[in-house]
Amino acid sequence: MRNALSTIGLIVCGSIALMLLIATCAPIAPAASSPSPVITERALNYGMITPGPTKVVGDLSMVIEVPPFPYGAPLPPPISTSIDALYSKQVPMEGTPTPCKRCAGYRLEGGEWTLYFNKGIYKVFHQITDFESIGSYTVSGDRLTLFNDPYCEEDLAMQGTYTFAVEGNILTLHVIDDPCSIRLRAKNLTSLAWTKKADAPTSSQDPCQPPNREAAVSDHWKKPDGCK
CA 20 to 30 Å from 27, out of 11, 126, 162, 196? Predict the structure, then answer.
């Protein structure tokens, strides 16, 4: 009897061991795979790679919050010139912008740049980086002179001289000499032609009215003498 029970026990133990061995060696069914995520690429801009909170900058192309300061020459009289208008250009996004805490003025970053001339005051604006600079200008024939620009840190009295041509809606600038901001201003202004924007103010507009909606809401624009 004892031998019979031992034999039965060995058979049972052997069966269990064989089942465990089969279970261990059996291939494991792969889990159902989820679809791969779709990765979309988009061009990086300066605001996306710069540390800190993201600030949304409005269109300040024609908003003159503070008039130019006469760093190197007196402010010219507020008289309309043949170049007065709002112009823009689109610079292609090439590579990844380089973040910096104190960027050199007039770096040619990708995106839309605007150039605004209005009665002796000019403004250069780049919405993506929030760059803006204002200064004074005079026109004599086809000669344009820029001065009183705070980004001419090498010498605030320095001037830039250009020739210009306006054909239809296209403005082209050619530098004669402009060392401002380690010559980045000249490189920026002459890199591409500028296109006149349709919403620019014209000489037929009331000079006492704000040039755009942003200026009307904020009341930050240069009002001519005599306007309330």
Answer: 11
Residue type, position 127, single letter: Q
User: Residue 28 and residue 6: Cα distance in Å, rounded?
Assistant: 35
pLDDT of residue 104: 82
Q: What is the pTM of this model?
A: 0.65
**Structural contact between residues 132 and 65, judged by C-beta atoms closer than 8 angstroms:** no
3-state helix, strand, coil in the chain (%, to 5): 20, 25, 60
How many Å from the N-terminal Cα to the C-terminal Cα in the chain?
A: 121
Amino acid in position 196: K
The structure tokens listed for 180 are 């401002």
163 pLDDT higher than 50: yes
Cα 112–Cα 114–Cα 115 angle in degrees, nearest 5: 155
Q: pLDDT by residue (tens digit) across 99-121?
A: 666 778 899 989 999 999 999 99
Domain spans in the chain, listed from the N-terminal domain onward:
60-213
What distance in Å separates the CA atoms of residue 146 and residue 116, rounded to the nearest whole number?
Answer: 13
Would you state the pLDDT for residue 220? 67
Place of tokens 């973040």: 99
DSSP track, 72-90? SSPPPP----TT-EEEEEE
Torsion region of 198: left, alpha or beta (phi above 0 gives left; psi -120 to 50 gives alpha):
alpha
Contacts of 128 (CB under 8 A, 6+ apart): 45, 46, 47, 109, 110, 111, 112
